[in-house]
Amino acid sequence: MKQYYAYILANKKNGTLYIGATNDLIRRVYEHKEEIIDGFTKKYKIKLLVYYEVHNNIN
């Protein structure tokens, strides 16, 4: 059975938040931390994983 992850990242305590979903949490957090993909998280230096949930359905 495939697993999906809903996750929240932040740039600092009480800072800017980013909410995402993925099927590979480790890879996706690595991409955020290394600023591999241009966009919101790179612009605001959002790299700290603060929460995640595992789901069987992406919806």
Strand order of the largest sheet: 2-1-3
Order of helices and strands: EEHHE
Main sheet: strands, sense, barrel:
3 strands, antiparallel
Mean pLDDT: 96
Integer tally of domains: 1
Outline the low-pLDDT stretches: none
Structural class by helix and strand composition: alpha+beta
| Multimerization state | single chain
Helix content: 10-25%
Percent of sequence in beta strands: 35-45%
Question: What does the overall shape look like?
Answer: globular
N- to C-terminal separation? 15 Å
What would you say this structure looks like, in words?
By secondary structure, the chain is an alpha+beta fold. It has one domain. 22% of the residues lie in helices and 36% in strands. It contains 2 helices and 3 strands; from the N terminus they run ββααβ. It has a 3-stranded antiparallel sheet, covered by helices on one side. β1 (4-10) and β2 (17-22) form a beta hairpin. The protein is globular.
How is this fold's topology laid out?
Elements: E1 4-10, E2 17-22, H1 25-33, H2 40-43, E3 48-55
Antiparallel strand pairs: 1-2, 1-3
Brief description of this entry?
With 59 residues, the protein is of the alpha+beta class. It is 22% helix and 36% strand. It has a three-stranded antiparallel β-sheet with strand order 2-1-3, covered by helices on one side.
